[in-house]
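Regression check, pyridoxal-5'-phosphate case 368:
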Amino acid sequence: MPRPLSATIHLDSMRHNLARARSCAPTAKIWGVVKANAYGHGLERGARGFADADGLALIETENAVRLRELGWTRPLLLLEGIFDVADIALLHEYGINSAVHCIEQVKMLEYTKLAGPVDVHLKMNTGMNRLGFVPSEYAAAHARLRAIPGIRHITLMTHFANADELEHPRLGIREQVRRFQLGAQGLAGERSLSNSGGVLRQAELAEQLSNDWVRPGIMLYGATPGDKTAEQYKLRPTMTLASAIIGIQQLAAGDTVGYGSRFEASGPMTVGVVACGYADGYPRHAPHGTPVLVDGVRTALIGRVSMDMMTVDLTPIANARVGSKVVLWGDGLPIDEVAHAAGTIGYELMCALAPRVQVLEGALGQPA
Ligand SMILES: *Cc1c(COP(=O)(O)O)cnc(C)c1O
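Current build output:
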């Protein structure tokens, strides 16, 4: 019998969330972002769950090639562009769009005779200060790309630093859009600005924010980049990390639990041992009180998370026993809530799912 820990991927929820993204930004085409192994869901599952997306966006050329080999025929986009001239041949061979964010990438394209047409996304740095040309240098970069034979469409692209907060005190969406419009003034081409945060803000921003392509990631996986809950946005969980109770201990007042003996029982209590630890991707720094479901009832993590196990308070669970079902996140327990308790974000929890965890597929709400 396999260890009871598994991650069930809900392809039905992935389809649902993609449809939500479409209804938020109905006039834009959608890049389903499948970087980082589709946020831990598996690249190939990303391609199936987002089969209705207009394109898929990711980081590595070899994974873009893999998507072609899996039969993905629509556009593909490399969000960080090429890392080496050798990648350029693959762009036209496999029909992959590439971001162009620095002058070195422009030069690589200039020096290489393109054997076929290549579409690029020229990235503007509108304040994130990670990748891209600053607005004042953007038109010149655009002109250099335009002059390269073989470069076909140039999409104008930027990325929001604080899309989850409309009125961010340092750099709100509106300010980034203003800078983008300034830098892109007079340039032809489609526009691509919004990540999930932008897509979820589209209704509020209305015509202030206009995209030909949007690039949602996290919302497609049923989590949110901001303070509102996934449920408020009608997004559904796409990954349920579930396990079981594999041991039970009865504690008396003063007994402690786990490494470091950091949890001390204040009175008699029942502790359940769950088959899931930090080597599975559960955050070791999750504190006492991080929510966990046992037999569908909410209870709390106690003690330190260890490599293969963690301990939970079974006192509120009526008939808990070895074998009782545990949900660490997903169906019935939003990943954002667990992440928040652990001082991180849903993105990190999904991406950190360890290779040793068995991955299953199943509809949301159905037992795996
Ligand atoms: C990761 C990424 C996205 C998706 O971001 P979410 O916050 O997950 O929606 C969009 N655009 C770019 C350039 C990215 O790197």
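Comparison notes: Residues 97 and 267 are 61 Å apart (CA to CA). The chain has two domains: 11-221, 239-361. No diff flagged against the previous build.
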